[in-house]
Design goal:
The protein is α+β, with helices and mostly antiparallel strands. Helices cover about 50% and strands about 15% of the residues. The protein folds into 2 domains: about 200 residues; about 170 residues, Glucose Permease (Domain IIA) (Distorted Sandwich). A hairpin with a 2-residue loop joins strand 8 and strand 9. The protein is elongated and about 135 Å long.
Length: about 400
């Protein structure tokens, strides 16, 4: 009796464990109506994006007008610099002429240098009338000379002020040029990001409509589980996406020195990681169908997915997944937004990362051996938009400008 009770407890524990395992991998059923609702949301996002495009284009136009005005200001400043240069040159010439005029006046009067030049001139008068006349001339000459000297000093001061003002205008011009270049760079980057996002949304809408059309043609009812009614279909897509929201490339596809064995070995995919390590969600790289979920000592926990990209068949593999985190099962239809598992370090791995392999054709269907799979491999960089530099971080799943 005790033995039967123990066996019953063991069975209950196993059933409980299975239930928990099934609950972890449960995938919410979707219907055509659900897909249409998602399409409506996508179209609403597209509409909002188009409105943002219009607003951004208006801002771009305003910025270009501002750039045009800056160019006009630069031309005006250049003209002003030319004018001020000419004025400085004229002032310098006037100073020279005034100086020569003073010298000429004194020379014409034939006055000697010294403090008594005017006294000698006055006391040479031969009458009272001549004396008064000479006094008047002397006063006028003194005042005239003083006025010339003051005027010359004013011109020198004006000359210096002009030079200071000219220097400031040059500095203003330089700053305007810097601001202009910054505006142009910012405008170009914003424009590129805008059009990249526009193309991305258009592709998503196109794919969503194609998926709905495929299920409807397959005879799926509006409220039927599409995983059930169209289990044999392979959903279409237009591109591959990065399988992580953020990260960077840690090891490239092709020949390399293996980090564990230390020998030269062919690397069948590209390794990706980030600072979040064991909390990083791994997404399907595109719409597709899960065909294998397994484990090997080298690959660790892995998932294999079939894809139909623009009518061409591909297979993607996701290796070293964290144990107990796989959220899909064989036969599931997935989208690029489906979370497959969490990044891990199972199998032959030196740390938490995702190994992504992509091959042409459908592995296990068009060919069945691993050697054939290797023969069909492509560099993931050829079909997925990863940053060109290995250590460059990305912060979304498609945009090449981030």
């Amino acid at each position: 009796m005790l033995k039967k009770l123990i066996n019953l407890i063991i069975v209950l524990i196993l059933l409980s464990s299975c239930f928990l395992s099934w609950s972890n991998i449960k995938v919410e059923a979707k219907t055509i109506n659900d897909l249409k609702a998602e399409l409506n949301e996508l179209e609403a996002k597209d509409k909002a994006n188009k409105k943002q495009i219009t607003n951004t284009e208006q801002r771009i136009t305003q910025t270009r007008n501002e750039i045009g005005q800056i160019n006009i200001d630069i031309e005006n400043i250049n003209d002003e610099i030319i004018q001020k240069t000419a004025e400085i040159k004229e002032l310098d010439q006037n100073i020279i002429e005034k100086d020569q005029e003073i010298k000429a006046t004194i020379n014409n009067l034939q006055l000697s240098s010294g403090n008594s030049i005017y006294l000698e001139f006055i006391f040479e008068a031969d009458s009272i009338t001549d004396f008064i006349y000479r006094m008047s001339v002397s006063e006028q000459l003194t005042k005239h000379n003083n006025d010339l000297i003051n005027e010359m000093n004013d011109m020198i001061e004006a000359n210096e002020n002009r030079k200071i003002e000219l220097k400031k205008h040059k500095e203003d011009l330089k700053q305007k040029e810097i601001n202009l270049k910054a505006k142009i760079n910012s405008l170009d980057k914003e424009k590129n990001n805008l059009y990249e996002f526009e193309r991305s949304i258009a592709d998503e809408i196109k794919t969503a409509r194609g998926v709905i059309d495929m299920y409807e043609k397959a005879g799926c009812g509006a409220n039927e589980d599409i995983n059930v009614c169209a289990n044999r279909l392979l959903p279409p897509d237009t591109r591959f996406w990065r399988p992580m929201v953020q990260g960077y490339v840690t090891s490239e596809y092709g020949d390399r020195i293996h980090p564990i064995y230390g020998t030269k070995k062919f690397h069948s995919g590209i390794d990706l990681s980030n600072s979040d390590k064991y909390n990083t969600k791994i997404y399907a790289a595109a719409n597709g169908k899960v065909v294998v979920i397994g484990y090997t000592s080298s690959m660790g926990n892995y998932i294999t997915i079939h894809h139909n990209i623009n009518g061409k068949k591909y297979t993607s593999q996701y290796l070293h997944l964290k144990t107990g985190t796989i959220k899909v099962k064989k036969g599931d239809l997935v989208t690029k937004d489906t979370v497959l598992a969490i990044m891990g370090s199972t199998g032959n791995s030196t740390g938490p990362h995702l190994h992504l392999s992509i091959a042409t054709g459908l592995y296990y269907k068009d060919y069945s051996t691993y050697a054939a799979f290797v023969d069909h491999l492509v560099n993931p960089r050829a079909v997925v938009n990863f940053p060109s530099n290995k250590s460059t971080y990305w912060y979304n799943r498609i945009n090449k400008y981030n």
